[in-house]
């Protein structure tokens, strides 16, 4: 849903004023502008000036989910305009223009990233195999100490699993 239908404020950064904190609106597709805004907010916070709300104006190029049909609410032309502002190629072009990044370096970095993603996916799939053998593991790694109501749910779940094994095993 467009922001204009969610709020009468022209920007989300304006809403910070209602909470007594500074608000900054920045081009969220400009990595240097985003960095500068974040650095300003960090400096303010570290010097005792309190929080800052940063509104990064950007665009979601991909669909929300597999059931989303963005053609219902945006045109191909709109998406194409925003693709031209994609932050990664935009920053790559900036760095290349400054002589700080070559096409070969970009390709090497992209290959390195693809390898990292592949390795992370393999580790995740291996972990999922281990966890699928232990269904009660869904209760782990969220709290340092499981709250009593979740402990009760875990116990109930374990009993139901055991009963199912007795019935079907």
Summarize the structure.
The protein is mostly helical and 169 residues long. The chain has helices at 3-6, 15-18, 31-46, 76-83, 87-97, 103-132, 148-168; strands spanning 23-27, 53-57.
What distinguishing features does this structure have?
mainly alpha; single chain; 169 residues; 2 strands; two-stranded parallel sheet; 56% helix; extended; 7 helices
Description:
The chain is mostly helical and 169 residues long. Among the domains are: 102-133; 134-169. It contains seven helices and two strands. It has helices at 3-6, 15-18, 31-46, 76-83, 87-97, 103-132, 148-168; strands at 23-27, 53-57. It has a two-stranded parallel ribbon. Strand 1 (23-27), helix 3 (31-46) and strand 2 (53-57) form a beta-alpha-beta unit. It is extended. The mean pLDDT is 92.
What does the secondary structure layout of this molecule look like, with pairings?
Blueprint: H1 3-6, H2 15-18, E1 23-27, H3 31-46, E2 53-57, H4 76-83, H5 87-97, H6 103-132, H7 148-168
Parallel strand pairs: 1-2
């Amino acid at each position: 849903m467009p922001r204009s239908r969610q709020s009468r404020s022209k920007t989300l950064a304006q809403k910070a004023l209602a909470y007594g904190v500074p608000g900054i609106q920045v081009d969220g597709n400009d990595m240097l502008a985003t960095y500068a805004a974040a650095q300003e907010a960090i400096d303010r916070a570290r010097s005792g000036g309190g929080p800052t709300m940063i509104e990064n104006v950007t665009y979601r190029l991909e669909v929300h989910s597999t059931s989303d049909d963005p053609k219902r609410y945006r045109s191909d032309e709109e998406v194409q305009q925003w693709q031209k502002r994609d932050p990664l190629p935009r920053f790559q072009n900036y760095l290349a223009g400054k002589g700080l990044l070559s096409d070969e370096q970009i390709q090497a970095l992209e290959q390195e990233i693809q390898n990292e993603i592949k390795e992370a996916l393999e580790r995740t799939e291996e972990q999922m195999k281990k966890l699928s053998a232990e269904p009660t593991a869904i209760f782990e790694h969220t709290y340092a100490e499981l709250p009593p109501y979740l402990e009760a749910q875990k116990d109930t779940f374990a009993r139901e699993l055991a009963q199912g094994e007795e019935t079907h095993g």
